[in-house]
Design a protein that fits this description.
The protein contains no helices and nine strands. It is elongated. By secondary structure, it is mostly beta strands. Helices cover about 0% and strands about 55% of the residues. The chain has one domain: Sandwich (Immunoglobulin-like), CATH 2.60.40.10. The strands form two sheets. Strands 2, 4, 5, 7, 8 and 9 form a six-stranded mixed β-sheet that branches. A hairpin with a 2-residue loop joins β7 and β8.
Length: about 130
């Protein structure tokens, strides 16, 4: 007797996931530079191919960009295979317009038309 198995076929989808590292060093003077690692993973069932755009903004509450100030940005074409990830090291420069205080690194990513946002719970200080 032959057995019957059900096969499910999922529609192709792209599902980027974001991991935001810690700003190093975490105490900065205006005009100084720090480094932030951002890892973009592909949890979808198709390769992520296309334009990757990363923007880093300071945030007081971890969810809202502060004052329209961008700390860093990156734009490049990428291919991230299913189940794989790519890590990008961004150089953050604190502008003189950023008032002293504690901020979260708020990262926005657009990958092949899919947008996600992430934040690291560790603040950095502008002194």
């Amino acid at each position: 007797m032959a057995s019957v198995q059900t096969v499910q076929i999922a529609a192709p989808f792209l599902q980027p996931q974001l991991t935001v590292g810690i700003v190093k060093p975490d105490h900065l003077n205006p005009g100084t530079t720090a480094v932030l690692s951002v890892t973009v993973a592909n949890a979808g069932n198709i390769d992520a191919v296309g334009l990757l755009q990363i923007t880093v903004n300071p945030s007081i509450d971890g969810g809202t960009p502060f004052g329209g100030i961008a700390l860093a940005g990156l734009s490049r074409r990428v291919r991230i295979r299913t189940g794989k990830s790519a890590t990008f090291r961004l150089r953050i420069k604190t502008p003189a317009a950023l008032i002293p205080g504690r901020y979260f690194p708020l990262v926005s990513v657009s990958l092949a038309g899919v947008d996600i946002t992430g934040v690291n719970a560790n603040e950095f200080a502008v002194i």
